[in-house]
């Protein structure tokens, strides 16, 4: 479990930096301002939850359990659905995946709730 969380954290952190740089340098002149903001929101949530996965990797060395595993899985799912749908919207202008974005947001919320359960039991 710690290794997979660490690998996901590294992958999502790396790609968040790359996508942020791509937006700042490659998309700035190609996208309308509101779509650039949408893209950057995806990057911000991806990086924040990559750092949360890093924290879970460290925490998993001291405790385990289903709630910790669920938190990590939900963060990964949230990044894919929430950030991924925002990237899609910004790059294509297609609103068809718009219903996926709230599911990703709910995944983030559920992941933080599971992390709260871990904290309640751990302390």
From TrEMBL:
Its main location: membrane. InterPro entries: DUF423. GO terms for cellular component: plasma membrane. It comes from Ventosimonas gracilis. The lineage of its organism: Bacteria, Pseudomonadati, Pseudomonadota, Gammaproteobacteria, Pseudomonadales. It comes from the Bacteria. It is found in: Membrane. Keywords: Membrane, Transmembrane, Transmembrane helix. It holds the Pfam family DUF423. This is DUF423 domain-containing protein.
């Amino acid at each position: 479990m710690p290794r997979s969380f660490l690998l996901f954290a590294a992958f999502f952190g790396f790609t968040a930096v790359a996508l942020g740089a791509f937006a700042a340098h490659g998309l700035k002149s190609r996208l309308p301002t509101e779509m650039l903001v949408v893209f950057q929101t995806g990057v911000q949530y991806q990086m924040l939850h990559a750092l949360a996965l890093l924290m879970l990797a460290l925490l998993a060395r001291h405790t385990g359990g289903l709630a910790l595993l669920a938190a990590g899985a939900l963060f990964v799912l949230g990044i894919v659905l929430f950030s991924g749908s925002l990237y899609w919207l910004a790059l294509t202008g297609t609103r068809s995946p718009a219903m996926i974005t709230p599911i990703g947001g709910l995944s983030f919320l559920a992941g933080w709730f599971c992390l709260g359960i871990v904290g309640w039991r751990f302390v």
